[in-house]
């Protein structure tokens, strides 16, 4: 495609004080740039040292020593970018790192753009686009499953599936083209039937991948969860228990609308994005507490509804109304206050609402483990296997899969309408290209810039 040969530099670790900071230099002149700023006791130059070694020395600006460092040397093509790369491990002071970066620029490098190292890895053929995107996802992963699915994509799981599909498609295109060129030797008799047989499993595979994107989104962003229940059922108490779980990492993110707050909870690697409608957690004033109506409105967009029922009181019209409204959604009923005398039983609720009911007590903090398992069962059939399953977690990739599927459907239509064979190859070719968008084998420069622009600095 387009070859970059200039040498770039950036601070690849965070811009906060830490034990170690890394300034990364990559490009044709990486070693020459590093030589200008590096001093070894022995007086040797980095460019005389073997690849894949670590050298101890100092970074100096003229006669001024800036820091004591370890330098990692990786010669092309055996580096992340597939270019000559030097990584300077310095002390992680923000000032020290900045000085070293400035010195790298003074010595002939230019400042890297966000994501430029990864972009080069892609442009130099070290990784495909799905792997490059997985790099961003690994960096941004905020739970165990998100990390696992990104790493699997980084290792090439998506690439492998897409490549196999593309190969099958291009084989058919080539066959059609050859037959049209050489009708004497290659016959297209009964070919449409054979092609139809080939397309069916491809479509199934695409459909499976597209379906995985729904889960993929939840893996990445968390399951959007709304807690509903009549006043005093124990919603805030339960939310507090969930948030207070020792293993829960709590972050508060301002919600999309002014009066919602999203609390993120990690349960055994699954993220719940709890939409705390108008702060049910904060207010003790019943009048001010969220009305059932409002919570139900939020519930419409939720992936999961936690309906809190009060075991110590009878079901009232609020309960009936809630149950009626949430019938079509994914719901888990938390039958709370099981520590008190039970007036409303599990069976009573099940008679009205056919959903899992879990007896809990916010007061005694019991039943929460079962909730966790139920959530996993509901969303991931109890497990997520990353060994052979490929998860699409990326909406750009999903859109490309959908477009490819559409093209294959058009091929089927052409077959059904007994169109001439070159019609098949046009749509097969567009499916081929749509899939190429995922791996980056057929993408334009704009898209590439757009994708890599989303990276953080130094990656
Ligand atoms: P909300 O209006 O649904 O948010 O309900 P709250 O969480 O504010 O709880 C209402 C009242 O029920 C409070 O006095 C809580 O202490 C009490 N409560 C909540 N959960 C339990 C429970 O599991 N057992 C008992 N005994 N009381 C509870």
UniProtKB/TrEMBL annotation:
Cofactor note: Binds 1 potassium ion per subunit.
Binding site for (6S)-5-formyl-5,6,7,8-tetrahydrofolate: 24, 87, 126, 459
Binding residues annotated for GTP, in chain numbering: 232-237, 251-257, 276-279
GO biological process, one term: tRNA methylation
Subcellular location: Cytoplasm
The keyword Cell membrane belongs to this UniProt entry's keyword annotation: no
GO MF annotations, alphabetized: GTP binding; GTPase activity; identical protein binding; metal ion binding
Entry GO CC: cytosol
Cofactors that this protein relies on: K(+)
Superkingdom of the source species: Bacteria
Domain named TrmE-type G: residues: 222-380
EC number: 3.6.-.-
Broad EC category: hydrolase
Keywords: Cytoplasm, GTP-binding, Hydrolase, Magnesium, Metal-binding, Nucleotide-binding, Potassium, tRNA processing
HAMAP family given in the database record: GTPase_MnmE
PANTHER family tied to this protein: TRNA MODIFICATION GTPASE GTPBP3 (PTHR42714), TRNA MODIFICATION GTPASE GTPBP3, MITOCHONDRIAL (PTHR42714:SF2)
Name used for this protein in its record: tRNA modification GTPase MnmE
Gene assigned in the entry: mnmE
